[in-house]
Write a structure and sequence with these properties.
Length: 98
């Protein structure tokens, strides 16, 4: 199941996808200027913290160092550079990462 949704606090559209029991919330902020990527990440991370989703995937034009340095200790992340120069950042609950 895949659906497009909006979240309070963000002007971007998000994709909510369920595969089996795993729910992923993703968004692309690579075409947006400040403060949209940060606002959108905060809105999505609230869903992760509330365990409404299992992971959040963000596509951004830069590695969001400020955001990453201010994550709560319970949230982990991985950063993968993409071939087109953008970055894919995956956020997860540290205790849930396999």
């Amino acid at each position: 199941m895949k659906q497009s949704i909006t979240l309070a606090g963000s002007p971007l559209r998000f994709t909510l996808q369920a595969e089996g029991s795993e729910r992923t919330l993703s968004f692309d902020s690579s075409q947006s200027g400040c403060p949209v990527p940060l606002q959108s990440a905060q809105a999505a991370l609230a869903w992760l913290t509330e365990k409404r989703v299992d992971r959040v995937v963000m596509i951004n034009h830069t590695e969001p160092m400020r955001l990453l340095s201010h994550l709560p200790p319970s949230i982990g992340f991985s950063v993968q550079p993409l071939a087109d120069g953008r970055f894919q950042i995956e956020f997860f609950q540290k205790s849930d990462k396999k």
